[in-house]
Amino acid sequence: NKHQKIFVHKDLRSCSHVFVRIDRIRKALEPPYQGPYRVVERSENFFTLSMKNVNISIDHLKPAYLLVTDKDDKPTPEEEHKEHLKIVFERLQQYGLRINISKSVMGADRIEYLGFLITAEGSRPLPEKVEAIINYKLPSTIHDLRTFLGLINFYRRYLKDAAKTQAALHELLKGA
């Protein structure tokens, strides 16, 4: 399988979410194409943490960059993955950053993030989110319709012919 297989999701206290994906660094930034909140890769020179108005640069740390890969990337062996995590932990400790263990997942074959289940095979909506869309009450006001359209647009890439299917609903919003 050509997909990334080991995922890590860490939450830093007093900072922000940091995702670590172990692989080679390809591009400084990639345009989003895997959903509305696709997490993109960043080069080691670009990866910075901002905390209390102080920028902490994590320079030349190849294993530390953000999650979600292209399908052409090769997975990293487990031992290399562990070594890279060790480097990341040492660097975070060096800068006095602490990981919120209760919100962290390490060595998982899948993670839940922003309403998606991310695995080596790709991403998909969480089953409970799909269930919420299926069981959504029939919109009775313009506000309800806008809310519903926002909900289904969040998962648009998973809906076949989404624009065509939603066209009639968008027509109802014209002039509102």
Automatic annotation (TrEMBL):
<dbReference type="InterPro" id="IPR043128">
    <property type="entry name" value="Rev_trsase/Diguanyl_cyclase"/>
</dbReference>
<dbReference type="InterPro" id="IPR043502">
    <property type="entry name" value="DNA/RNA_pol_sf"/>
</dbReference>
<dbReference type="GO" id="GO:0071897">
    <property type="term" value="P:DNA biosynthetic process"/>
</dbReference>
<protein>
    <submittedName>
        <fullName>Retrovirus-related Pol polyprotein from transposon opus</fullName>
    </submittedName>
</protein>
<dbReference type="InterPro" id="IPR050951">
    <property type="entry name" value="Retrovirus_Pol_polyprotein"/>
</dbReference>
